[in-house]
Amino acid sequence: MLRRNLAILASVAALSLGTGVATAKTPQDQLVIAMAMSSIRGLDPQEINQFEAAEVVANLYDRLIALPPDRITEPQPSLAESWTVSEDGKTFTFKIRQGVTFHSGNPLTARDAEWSLHRLVKLGLAPSTDLRQWGFSAKNVDQLIRATDDYTLVVETPGVWNANLILYSLGSFSTSIVDRKLLMEREKNGDWGREYLQSADAGSGPYSLETWRANQLMSADAFENYWQGKPAMRRVFISNMPESSAQRLQIDAGDIDVATRLSSTDLGGLERDGKVTVQKTPGIGFYYLALNQKDEILSNPKVREAFRYLIDYDGLAATVMKYYGNKQQTIIPAGLPGSNTENPYKLDIDKAKQLLAEAGYPDGFSKVYYATPVTPEFEVAQSLQANAAKAGIRLDLQGGDHIGKFRNREFQLFSARSGDRLPDPHAVLQSYATNSNNSDEAKLTGLNAWRTAWEVPKDIQDMVVTAAHETDQEKRVELYHKINEAYLAASPALVTSFQRTDAKAVRTEVKGYVGHPTWLTRWDTVTKSE
Fold it and tell me: Which CATH number fits domain 283-501: 3.30.930.10, 3.30.1490.20, 3.40.470.10, 3.10.105.10?
């Protein structure tokens, strides 16, 4: 059996290099996933910020709260078997499940949960926003998040927020519970075990990390003593296979079970062949075009409005976006409170020309346009470039990794897609519709609105903050409807066109592999039919 496993691992590695090595169908008790692994720079749940890494972490660790993919707005017990919320809405008391052990054999207690949440806040890395946005800080977290005994954890928020926002945050991958004793033993120079967790795990989840080779492969073994029972898949492999054509070839042959980041053409072909099911999982985010408001031309409201008429919404929906997005021009993701299906814009070159002339640019202008060079983002960018040219706007389209320039406001036009971890309108609105300090010195780099240097209208920002604090759900829904309308009318510097969907091809014999809107796809639910 060991030789067979090694052979499979070698085959997966060879395939990731594009050698085309032929293999038999994957074993009945093993799951093989192909993905582009270049964005996975480590496996520390309180450091990662990529959806590919999130899927791995979702299976190495558990969290206090579970957010089922089919009921994502209904928090369910996980490591916390129950909880209560105080009458004033500020104190959450969690009863920690007894009898849970980490992969190391150490027992999991409320002390581990306390330490994990302190670690997240005190490290202060990108995922710490999940708690810091509610007022937790390195100075107050020891006082506000505390274990009162081995199986009771108290989380006291500095202010009153809608309770679901706190529970959703505690179901995010960033709040995974880590093995305090193990990491304290592995700590180097006060790093909270960060170096160790780049290529190891300290979790209690259904799988334990067996092999990790950056940009090559990962293998994880089923955890024998998992509190929900040993998973059916004895081992899970992930292979680095960034090319869509290679993934299509291998899943068609049965050499891999799950393919990710395929082109719409390859997904369509696989779907027609009938060997796979194509999953389209709605995401909490959008494909967007960002217009830098430091640029005199792009800051003109009529120019911003013109760009809305240069996107071929219907054409893209039928082609490159068929599997990767649903047309949506409003700001609250479909399925969340306050969302609507209003899409008033369409491709209209003449209307765009009219707006440009009214703005004082009848002959157009030239700008540099950065776009992510992956499917489908780059195809969307090429479509916009072609339509803009018809209106007199000359876009110098440049692919590459320009996210750093976007975060530092060193761009003219930039397009990509966003994804958020909380299944609530606030997750998107905080980034797209708040910018409390538009100065360069503020460095609110986590906010897309700040990155575009857009002075968000005060009435919109006030409504976003009010809605997050509102405990009456009906009032929240009313506020979100108003925000949706106001945002669209503002001709924002962030032009949304499609709500993202994450598409994956799954072999028909694979059952129970279910995409998750916040990327917490689990492997312990997977079985295979004969």
Answer: 3.10.105.10
